[in-house]
Amino acid sequence: MRRDVAIKTKEPDERPAGRRNLVDVVGQQLRQAILGGALKPGEKLPSESGLTERYKVSRTVIREAIASMRADGLVEVRHGVGVFVCNARPFPPTGLLETDPERISSIIEMLELRAAVETEAASLAAARRSPAQDEAIIEHFEDIDRAMERGLATSEADFEFHLAIADATNNPRFREFLELTGKRAIPRSFLQDQPDETASADYLAQIQAEHRRIAEAISDRDEHAAREAMRLHLKGSQQRYRNLIRKSS
Q1: Which of 2, 17, 197, 242 has the most beta carbons within 10 angstroms of its beta carbon?
Q2: Where is each HTH gntR-type domain found (predicted)?
């Protein structure tokens, strides 16, 4: 993982491929503001010139991002007046992806589902991530390190690391999926929510080594390596919990 790569900046690329990526980035941020409640139904978006200044992109990028959100039913354009937020579609019931901490098999089921989604997310993140998104992934990776050094629970920082990867796909559906699972998608949170239970240092070091390989592959824009690193990370978690089943049987 090379921080010097992550923090380099360059002028936005307004060629077709570069513009498409900028449209995705701007659109994702606006979608998150709407779905997260920062922009409320009926609220007017900043003017086109205001958005170009905020995101440091061209008017063409802003127009394409708005058109994409309009097609998704998130905003409506009132000609001569402005762009307004529509009623955001509600998320599915949270119970859809709840995990039963009393059943290790339930945890494994969640990990299998995450593997199906997040291996592709890691690959897309490697292909699409911006320098700022790369830096965010590294920052959250280092947050886990800091929590480990201080002997604190790492499940929340771990979840934020995976959310940062989801954001780097520039497809908001990946973040939505993880937000539906909540931090309970990180199995050791079941233990760390209990004051007398902590994950072992060796276990956390192994998990963090897997995180490093994922982050490095995304930083290197290596789609295959990112997909494989995420697959091995989540498959490894599945195996660790299957071993718990064997021990308890």
Answers
A1: 242
A2: 20-88
Contact 229, 213 (CB under 8 A): yes
**b or e along 203-241 (b: 16 or more beta carbons within 10 Å of the residue's beta carbon)?**
ebeebbebbbbbbbbbbeebbebbbbbbbebbeebbebb
**Whether the Cβ atoms of residue 211 and residue 230 lie closer than 8 Å to each other:** no
Centroid of chain to Cα 119: 12
64 and 22 Cβ atoms separated by less than 8 Å: no
Whether the Cβ atoms of residue 29 and residue 66 lie closer than 8 Å to each other: no
pLDDT in tens, 66-98: 988 887 788 998 888 899 998 755 444 444 455
First to last CA, the chain: 41
Residues (pLDDT < 70) of the chain are 1-20, 88-105, 182-199, 244-249
At 19, which amino acid appears? R
Q: In the 3-class helix/strand/coil scheme, how is 101-141 assigned residue by residue?
A: CCCHHHHHHHHHHHHHHHHHHHHHHHHHCCHHHHHHHHHHH
And the tokens for 167? 């954001």
